[in-house]
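Researcher: Last one for today. Full complex below.
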Amino acid sequence: MSILRKLITAVKGGATEVGEAIVDSQAIRILDQEIRNSEASLVKAKQELTNIMAQKMGVKRKVDDLNTKIDEHMNYARQALAKNDEGLAGEIAQKIAEFQNDLDPQTALLDSYVASVKQLKETIRKTENSLNTMKREVAIVKSTESVQKAQAALASRTSGSNSSMLNASESIKRIKERQTHNADRMNAALEMEKEASGDDLAAKMEAAGIIGGKSSGADILSQLKTESK
Amino acid sequence: MSNKLNLDGLTTAFVEASSEEGLQYSAELLAGEVPVLQVSIADREEFPVYITIDDSQALCVSYLWTEDDVKPECRQQLLDDLLVMNLPMPLSAFSKIGSRYVIFGALSTSSSIQDVISEVEILSDNTLEVFETIDEYLQESVTN
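Model: Here's the assembly. Have a good evening.
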């Protein structure tokens, strides 16, 4: 089962009651255990890698040593042949063959160590990645669980411990009413300010023709017409 | 001292902050295995934003409605609309915790406190916006 699928299972779909655990604590315990197991196997894999790398270095030293000896003895053999000492050259060649016979299995061993190191490094990288993913996802589940608890606590605080929280539509309606109420209050405040500053009285007197209103194009036109008569 | 986000710093910041739009916050830090910061916004107290911080991210979550709030015949259309809205909606995304629908935003733990405040503000605006959008799919009242 993928980690995500496990998490979906861990977060129960059916928990609707306030205060009811949203996360299956057993499932989380299992995931936590899996994380610990992964961490343990990661430590083991790293130790194994260290061992294999140490062994690889030992074998590499042997291979280098044998190659050096073979080169040296090839030189000796050439020198012996140059001195026409066939017997000595034959003995040296025999020695070289022994070195070569030692070298072949060591080279094969070295190759297998190199392959193992590469494979182990890849395994460690993959394990580390999936471990991080797993830790991150479990952290999110735990966070959402805490958020759920906080929300349930708020719900029971605002609406009594035994009743469920306000229905969503009712909540949003309440917010809208409050916003309308605030807008009304602001308009009323503006109105009062206008009255207080006398704007309203001036407007009333103007409407009653007691004080002059603002000039309009029509007023000016009718004034011009009166003058030209 | 690292400059990573922490809930104590955020609590103080929200108490002191008053956004340009004039939103007033109150913040309460709730202790627990994973501590949660509950941020309430004046006049929108019904929909507080919950913030948690773990090693990899800061999560801001606001609860929307429950499965019970949804008119059964509209559920499919609601889910479809939410999925479509997910992309164009600024900074927030939808999810479900148990039977509760939530809207959330996730931030890097190296975000600034101002980033988190903006996130909460946008999340709260998005919450109201979403209700406006899907209003017709919700029950008028719930019979428990």
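Residues 59 and 106 of chain B are 5 Å apart (CA to CA). The mean pLDDT of chain B is 87.
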